[in-house]
Amino acid sequence: MLGLGIIGWIIIGGLAGWIASKFMGTDAQQGILLNIVVGVVGGLLGGWLLTLFNVDVEGGGLIFSFLTCLAGAVILLFLVKLVTGRRSVH
After folding, report:
1. What is the pLDDT of residues 8-17, one digit of tens each?
2. What φ, ψ does residue 45 adopt, rounded to 5°?
């Protein structure tokens, strides 16, 4: 893992979770804490999925880590919406 520390992962996770929630239309239902959780869990999910395809996730750098968190968060929110049957309200 990158040497970001817990504060770095909270910041990257929060930003990735917030952008993913905007993209997926769930931002009105989530607060800052849930955005952070979604981003960090999304980062773990994205990193795990990339390792299945033999992608070196540890040597990717800061931007790669952010994009991994973002992609994982979008996948996570998609799966949650799929399981719960919630639709976005526009």
Report:
1. 778 888 899 9
2. -65, -45
The pTM of this model reads: 0.82
pLDDT tens for 8-42 read 778 888 899 999 988 988 877 778 888 888 988 99
User: Cα–Cα distance between 90 and 87 in angstroms, integer?
Assistant: 9
**Residues with Cβ < 8 Å from 90, sequence gap 6 or more?**
25
d(CA 50, CA 41): 14
Q: How far apart are CA 87 and CA 50, in angstroms?
A: 28
Q: Single out the residue of 65, 80, 82 nearest to residue 16, CA to CA.
A: 65
Q: How far apart are CA 30 and CA 7, in angstroms?
A: 20
How far, in Å, are 55, 74, 75, 78, 86 from residue 14 at the CA level? 24, 13, 16, 17, 22
Write down how long the chain is.
90
